[in-house]
Amino acid sequence: MTTISHLSRDLIGEILSKVPITCVGKLRCTCKRWNASTRDRLVGKAGAKQSMGFMMMDYKVCSARINLNGILKDEEGSVVGPISIKPIDNLNEIEISKVFHCDGLLLCATKDRTRLLVWNPYLGQTKWIKPKKAYHRLDSYALGYDKNKKSYKILRFVDDQHLPTYLFEFEIYDMNSNLWRALDVTPDWDIEYFRPGLTVKGNTYFFAKQKVIFEEDADEADGDVDDFLVSFDFTKERFGPHLHVPFHSHLPEDTVALSSVGENNLAALYQSEDINAMEIWVTTKIEPHTVSWSKLYFLAVNTMIPLIGASFFIDKEKKLAVVFAVDIHGRHKRACIIGEGGYFKQVDLAEVAVNSDDEDPYCFPVCSYVPSLVHINQGLVLSGKRKER
């Protein structure tokens, strides 16, 4: 009789590649070999063929699998194409409006703006976080970690001068102490709430523009403004200097999105009517005080792709990119697969839900997911996990 102990490591990895990430944690206690092989499911041989992640669609957190080598099949064996998206069962009763990622942990903001949820999909652990006073629909969030205290922290801020009453709040939450603290910040930049930041090596980077002070009787600012990246250092608990971006976005129709490349670099997607093309740039070095870029010429698309609320994933080895967005008419959510030599393919994902109070109908995928062994209730960055980097 064949038992688990007779199975090869490769076969175990192949079996685990069929199991949803939210169920992998339950298999860790089956036996020592399965426990040791679960990480291969995502970062070893079993995970090399496809990219795992999470995305938000119609206020639901969904698991996403992207197979750039071929097609995917569901549990019944039916072909579902190169992209498979399914709602997370244990979060099905919760409406989520925003999702952020750091080191295998997800930070989710509820649609009713009453709570934040930190979730470890690999361990199946969750932690609800209530606001110090109240959350706001224009809030921006980030999840990162303090390298000295080895603790995860949440940044929350809102800086809006267009309301009848100017709203300005910067706060940080420490998952070890479970406390919110106000931050003393005087920004010379604006970060639009619908442009999520991207966390790399514990620090979060935002696409920002030079702050413009509106005159009392003026409807809008005159002239063009600079754009750049600005970082938030969770160890020092402060924002860094302006970091150069290799493009200039100055039109409302321009598309700018950030994504991760492995665990140590980020990518920037830029599309503008001025250049009539899409560009993807990848950092060769990025720290809170310095950045350098390299353009991925093999992913250049010499045509305008109608995009709203774009986010994307790239695979440098396969020289492919997948861009998730809503079409220009706001009716369909689509994935655009871009490859070498002008390869381009569109995949319809779903219709945009028609809802009068829809604040954010877009989808923001979290790709390149790596399992985290961090126990949320402890809030610690395990020393062993850091040594793996």
From TrEMBL:
Residue stretches making up the F-box domain: 4-40
Residue ranges of domain F-box associated beta-propeller type in the record: 53-376
Pfam family, one: FBA_1
Signal peptide positions (record): none
NCBIfam families: F_box_assoc_1 (TIGR01640)
Name of the protein this chain belongs to: F-box domain-containing protein
